[in-house]
Amino acid sequence: MSIAEIRQNAEHKMNQSLEALKTSLSKVRTGRPNPQILDTVHVEYYGSMLPLSQVANLSLLDARTIGVAPWEKGMGAKIEKAIRESDLGLNPASQGDLIRVPMPPMTEERRKELTKVVKGEGEAAKVAVRNLRRDANEHVKKLLKDKLVSEDDERRAQDDIQKLTDRMIGEIDRIVASKEQDILAV
């Protein structure tokens, strides 16, 4: 494996860590509703458990309400039950074929809890990026030990990997700060 391949591999894995962070943060509730919050809800459908998005249309009805429109008539009660029993603390209400899921306003205490959760997710992503940096540096050192690269090349590669790591950590900090602002916005 060459230095370029090691760097490319590290960058790819760091980008995956960044995407995982974005995905996990999209599930954290902010002041405004987001249909993705219901991604964790599963509904029984002909004997198997399916994500809600595979049995119904999810949409925003207004600034505080998510609309769930089941694709089959008989699914309304099951969907309503699944949302109510999820650990999201939501109370859906049927309105004909449409299920309205009002998002309760968040308390200041809940907002602070969520910012701690977001910071924790950000810290976990940083640890993952730093572990990837360590692995990449170990690969480069192994190339030096096997006399496949010079000491200068090894030093340049480590500097390059460090710059990549710094850039990724800066991006993580930016994403976390943005999510915290969303949560704290009233």
The structure class reads alpha+beta
Number of domains: 2
Number of helices: 4
Give the low-pLDDT segments.
none
Shape: elongated
Largest sheet: 4 strands, antiparallel
- The largest beta-sheet arranges its strands as 3-4-6-5
Going by CATH, what is the homologous superfamily of the largest domain?
Answer: Ribosome-recycling factor
Strand content: 15-25%
InterPro entries: Ribosome_recyc_fac, Ribosome_recyc_fac_dom, RRF_sf
Organism: Hydrogenophaga pseudoflava (Pseudomonas carboxydoflava)
Function: Responsible for the release of ribosomes from messenger RNA at the termination of protein biosynthesis. May increase the efficiency of translation by recycling ribosomes from one round of translation to another.
Pfam families: RRF
